[in-house]
Amino acid sequence: MTANRRTPGTHWRQRPLRFAQDSETLRRLLAALNRHHAEEPCRQVPAAPLDSAAISRTVTEALAFQLPLPERAWVDMTTLKLRGHLQLLLSEFDGDADAPPARTLHGDAYRLLALCDSFDATAPFLHAYELMRALAETTRSFADLHEERQQAQAAKESDE
Questions:
Q1: Who has the most CB within 10 Å: 74, 89, 135, 143?
Q2: pLDDT tens sequence across 110-131
């Protein structure tokens, strides 16, 4: 018996993980995940408070004119922050898309978030940069809408 055979598994060759690439396997995986989520009881997650200062700071940094252009790592990190802010604002406004401007903002936001899911490190830098700026503009519009809504609610409460 060799030394390698004494420890189980040491004589096996290590292979890197490979993920499914075909669409049929991915569809089956998504169907299984959806079934699993449908079986779970729905848990109500408390909404995180909106930090308008952090949102404003991130949007201002993203929209600031910079020469030379920032590094890709900074763009990716800012995009991540903006995605979080936008998702939080969308959760605040879920179901409140009665006015046409709010409806178009919702559509733009969901389209941008879907675009973010398809981006990775292989995407060209300028595409990632433009996506970050579009996210910042949409997030700023939602933050303005949120402020207007808060002021309208405060005015209603003060009238009563």
A1: 135
A2: 888 888 887 777 888 888 899 9
